[in-house]
Task: structure prediction
Amino acid sequence: MARGDHRMTPTEPPSVLQPAWALWCAGDAPDMRTLTLGGAWTVHGLDPAPALHLPAGCTTVRLTVVGDATIHAATLVTTRDMPAAEPAAVVPLQLDTAGALVLGRSLKAWADAGIVVDRSALTPAHRQLLDLVLARAAPAPQLQPRAHAGLLGDIGRAAVAAVREGREFLAFVGELAWRGVPLLLTFWRIRWREVVAEIDAAGLRALGIVGLLSFLIGMVMAYQGGATLATYGANILIVNLVAIITLRELGPLLAAILVAGRTGSSYTAQLGTMRITEEIDALQALGLSPFEMLVFPKVVALVITLPLLSLFADVMGLIGGGVVASAGYGVPWNEYLSRIPQVVGVQTLMLGLAKAPVFAVIIALVGCMQGLRVSGSAASVGRATTVAVVQSIFLVIVIDAGFSIVYNLLGL
Result:
């Protein structure tokens, strides 16, 4: 016997949705068994579906329903999952297409095994529904295990996935150009309130972590470079080391990596949650563009914010290097500050800050794209957030390397 839990809906009275029951009873011969069905064999009553295990040695099965046969406890062949209620409490059989499909698959498997199934005791309506479902039901799919293609196959699949991901990202960049340029030309249509809110979240609230880490990285650079320069008596060159690396490379790169992990992930989580709760579908139903309302303000805000954060990271990195140069290697503060303009100029500063808007667009687009691609359950939000952070940091580093190559080729 098997029993399924049931779920009630507000439109159906509790008396209708009784659990689906199936009782194996002894027949007239040792090789014959009677399967008595009762309860709601419906889509609401089959959760989970009953498992009809045929008794050993049975060659003939006779189907009956509650009311057609007298059920005595002594005649039960199996007592698996026996409920506390008496069998007499079971309501007559209620059968819909879901229940007929569950029952019909067992009957077909028994018939294929050579077991005689007698359905004459069922009502004509039940027999007709069973015949209709068995005739129309598609065979259960047989999942074949995927053969392992080896190392080259794994590399090929990874390459195809990377190409597909790159194509989707380029499509997202194209959508930004297609929708964003008209908005910039009619700037009064931009949702400036959302832009200001995103600047506050991505910029002002990130000053602490960006400043602290930039300060510490500046100290580390000064310590590591000063240990070597001090052996040659060239302590003053610590200024050259810290200033050039910080302004040209480290400040914008560090700010971009922190923003990718902090702000890019929040973009993915926000849009992914909105996708699951169907808020984005509601915007589209109202005729509003999710790209214009949700994505573009984030891109504009990050393009404004990241260069300012990079400049702040440059300042804090120089201060951190100056603390170590002054306290650890005897370089006076006034000499440290006066030498910075001699070592680096406005061009060096601008070469570093020129990367920041590109980093900002990449981080914002990757975070938003992964958020809009979320589907299924809340677990997919976490997976999309992880992918967004990894892709953003990877692309930021790759683009930074590209900038370095271009600057070298141009002699800058």
About this structure: The chain has two domains: 2-136, 176-409.
